[in-house]
Amino acid sequence: MTRGSNLRMRTGIAAAVVAGAAATMLAAPAHADAPRYAELRSPTVAYGPACAGQVFAQFTSARVLYPGPNLPPKNNRGIVRVSVGGNFFGISDRAGMPCRVHTIVRWRNLRSGSSGVVAGRVSGTLIPPVAQDLVSASPRTGSGPVEFTLTTARPHLVERTVLNVW
Hints:
Blueprint: H1 3-27, E1 36-45, E2 50-61, E3 64-65, E4 74-75, E5 81-91, E6 100-109, E7 115-125, E8 130-133, E9 135-137, E10 144-152, E11 159-165
């Protein structure tokens, strides 16, 4: 082996080691106890002669909940914070009010089989983007992988996600 090929080989090995180390650092979580988060968005038709937009749902799972200053942390395992809203444009079924639609979030724990529903009416405007009526709940789903499905009572696209709940 010549001196030039030996140098190229060592340079190639060094580059591979650096690339491997960088990939490992990027794949590592920032904090082991960090909250876990998922979001769904679904285009839908809303109530009214010409009203459409989107509904959205956000899911947050945190191992520990901090209720406020000078209060002890609370074990939050197996509980998911669900927030549902919507943004619409068009002609509402209520004069002078934003469009609205009944929204349903179904959840199912893929490990235990337990399931439930979070439902309610959401409303809001697209321009400016302001969600007005929101649905919020904190169902006890249990820990592990939980599948969430977002639907509405009007024509829509069904959206699904799985969140690994603390």
